[in-house]
Amino acid sequence: MRKRRTLAAILSVLVLVGVVGFTGTGRCEYPERPVTVIVGMDAGGPTDIAVRAMTPSLGSYLAQPIIVENKGGGAGTVAMSLASTAKPDGYTVCCAHSDAFVNTALMQKLPFRPLHSFTPIMGFGIAEHAALLVKSDAPWQTFKELIEYAKKNPGKIKYGTPGIGLGMHIALEVVALKEGIKWVHVPYKGIAPARTALMGGHLDVCSSSIDWPPLVQAGTLRVLATYGQNRSPHFPNVPTVKELGYDFVNAAVYCIVGPAGIPAEIQKKLETAFTKATESPEFKAVLDKLYLTPAHFSSVEYDRHLKEKWVRTEKIFKELGIIKEPATEP
What is the pTM of this model? Predict the structure, then answer.
């Protein structure tokens, strides 16, 4: 009888060890399987390239494969919607940027609350020098010439952007409101297809995200204005729209978020993993090629950034007459 009791006790201990997995918590340690990063733009744009540059270091730190899924559309909000409804276990996160959280949500009704439906993880870069582009053989040599043409030809200019509500879209709506221009906005699922449409003659203008300089340097496109606080260091002779008399500056902060409710210990591990991935020399070299300004926002800092941007942008949009009230509750 004593031997049977001893054997039963040993078996109980072995079962307990198997369940606990040597973690002492009654559960296996995160992550046990691949982590998916949903990218809110089609392949080939800055968001997609930046995420894919992170994955080697990220996968090494988490000791799991990293799966990148492109879900373009809605200026990044299609991907954000998918992320907001994912299980909050740390296995699904999303790469987005502050314009999608704030600008798009202010203008459109979205199926999530931008300041409540997510767990902020970190921010890693700032898009400071988006720009207005035309083909190199376009008749407009300057921004002023384009505006004069648009005034005389209402509804004739078609301009493309990576999506509704992004800074590239708002920039031209600010100009249109001030100048009384009527032109046609054509949103795409990312900047790569928008610029392709411009080069193919399907658009007259492209309001582009930041990775445009090589196309201008190659003589394929011409830049008429940029949207940063200061001029682009690569094209110091090109004016900003603010210099040209329009009260607008665009600086979207790229980030990683997950669905609301991710446990604090998993959030912290993800924040550490993504931070380490963005510190690698390889990733920094990619940021430089994408013309993204390196930056680091902790989860707390990024959460604060979004809340402050919401208040500031809502005020600006109301003053400009773009909205009367936010389309989506924060």
Answer: 0.78
